[in-house]
TrEMBL record:
This is diguanylate cyclase. It is an enzyme of class 2 (transferase). Its EC number is 2.7.7.65. It holds the Pfam family PAS_4. Keywords: Kinase, Nucleotidyltransferase, Transferase. PROSITE patterns: GGDEF. The keyword Endoplasmic reticulum does not apply. It comes from Marinobacter qingdaonensis.
Amino acid sequence: MAFKEPQVDSFHWLVDMLESVEVGLVVLDLDFRVQAWNGFMENHSGITASRIRDKVIFDVFPDIPQAWLARKVDAVALLNTRAFTSWEQRPYLFKFRNTRPITGTEEFMFQNLTISPLSGPSGQVEKVCLMVYDVTDIASSKRALERANEQLAKLSMTDRLTGLLNRGTWENLVDAEYERYRRYGQATSLVMFDIDHFKKVNDTHGHLAGDEVIKHTATVTKNNLRQSDTAGRYGGEEFGIILPETDAEGARIICERIRESIAQSVVETTVAPIEYTISMGIAQLSDGPENYMQWMQQADKALYAAKEGGRNRVVISNHDPS
């Protein structure tokens, strides 16, 4: 480690320790010129201490956020106290490549940083020491755990076969939309629909082919909805859609688009090509239902009316939404 003060050179054991320690040590003067640069920093940057000595750190590492580091160093010098930052606040100060084999999935080294004041003989802070800690193992493990938890949370909310929201999650959103209507009074519609003669599909072609039909229904539905709309698999071959800020006529247009897309498509399964249709019921929310379940019942009754009317059609609930 290159120090400018000659008295330190006599402490060879101290120098050896600072060179071999697995922590980056960088000493800067208050003009951000490098005064010391230990072996850790040489190894990971590829820059020797002799090359970087007296260079402004921002000239050598333009990726360092200058304004941010300047604020930190100014506060350390003014208050004569340490400052800390973790990888969660800022992933790294020095953009070093990650060289650890265990955490090879991470592209860059995650770092914790400590900035310590260094006082001169007068007691005034003349320099600061940056201590750079490689915490890639910790960061990688935590990030992997967070990703796993996110995946588990997603799996607990979605239907595995279709990727749509599962019944419990979707029904909770129906309840939330009902309460939103009660508060703001904006038009909103609910759709319940299912696959016509689905039992015949299963009996004729088998359950695997039936699963392909269900997945196709989900895909067509998602492709025809707006970003604000929410579809869920209610159970078996039955599905539901929440259409916020949409009256019954607007919901009918969306539903007809879905119904026609399915009626005109063919599902290519390993058993046989399958053509099928769906029936759909719409209920625009009004002040009549006392809870979201009654609203769902209205949409369900409209669905059964579509079934009784010959299937492959869209029916709007006859409950007056006004």
